[in-house]
Amino acid sequence: MQQKAATAKKGRAAQQDAQLQQELYAKRQKIYPREVHGVFARLRVAAVFALLGIYYGLPWLKWQGRQAVLLDLPNRQFHFFGITFWPQDFFFLAALLAIAALSLFFFTALAGRLWCGYACPQTVWTEVFLWIERKIEGDRPKQIKLDKAPWTPKKLAIKGAKHLVWLAFSLYTGFTFVGYFTPIDDLAVRFIHFDTGPWETFWIFFYGFATYGNAGWLREQVCIYMCPYARFQSAMFDKDTLIISYDEKRGEPRGSRKRGVDPRELGLGDCIDCTLCVQVCPTGIDIRDGLQYECIGCAACIDVCDQVMEKMGYPKGLIRYTTERAMEGEKTHILRPRVVVYAVLLLILFSGLVYAVLTRVPAELDVIRDRMSLYRETEEGLVENSYTLKIANQDSKPHTYRISIKGLEGAQLINPYGEIEVQPGEVKNVPVRVAVDPGDLRRPSSKLEFILEAVDDPSIRIQEDSRFLGPVVR
After folding, report:
1. Which of 326, 360, 394 delimits the end of a domain?
2. What is the pTM of this model?
3. Same domain, 295 and 409
4. What is the mean pLDDT of residues 307-314?
């Protein structure tokens, strides 16, 4: 019996290799994923509602009289609730991207392709498109039957209705995307009256078309052929990574049988070869052939297999989340070097980003000393240096600033402008002079600090170091 099972396994492997070679040239066969219910299906639905709720709802959220999240590119202002970022703050974006990359590495090393199965935009939007398709065309058998049927007015109406709903949903997706860059209230009014600008119109239709094409037509091809993550995920896997696996020792040899029959009496394993695990797979793979790069970790095969095992009266878990070590009967090590390193780096980067944002001062001061002359002597016998102060207001409201100096004994700030008002996003150049009695100079180059304070907000206070040059002390 074991020899028979080994022969069957080799035959399936050869068939799979031949099929893989043919797939490189063969026309794509449409996949009709069967609807499945269960624990992981409910988790996916919850993730879809949460993520799409955030995507479609966030632009409409108001904060202090304006759109809570608005990436205002023309005015170079990026509003996130009560904080306004400017192009000078792009290092925050770099830190955020580094955190996102490390998070992907961390969760992949720990629990496989969680991102792909539950949070990837391709997965999320494809779930919505599949739901629309099932509501209009019916379940998997009805869809297959409809596609094989000749074109009739009824089929044309069903297909047309489906694509119209897809297109409307895609168009609203593109509209929402542009709503993150243009105030969505104004955009909605102009869009209804066909009065959007050329770039707004382009991106609404481009993003809508991309959603329609990727989630409606390409689907699993994006995951299998276009997504680079599937190609390098194996570099982040090890024997302790949690993956979806088929218990071959328990399931083989597979074969059909009646309910209530002891499979051991027939020389069979627990797998009844119903192929439901293949029918529910959104990428069309057979998880019983082992871990494959096409598997996105959605766990649909786990849900449907558990239902079959329950109906047959067998223990659940023939297909389950497990590790290679556990499948081999060894102990799984959750805490291992790569996981600890990822976790520590994530903690450091995330803590640093939160601290930097919370302690961020919405102003910037650059001190540029006049390099055309070292110094000059005034009629009063003072030594004077000239500076240009660049004051940038990085807040969402105007501020009035006061300038002062410290660090050099007897230094006098000569500022003919007094208090300076700077509008949001404005950078104002303020020429000032600093005069010192030569008797107070101890060295030819002395440290000098400029202090910028907002008159209307004491929390905005920054200082910038510079140098004061004078005659050589003899």
Report:
1. 360
2. 0.86
3. no
4. 96
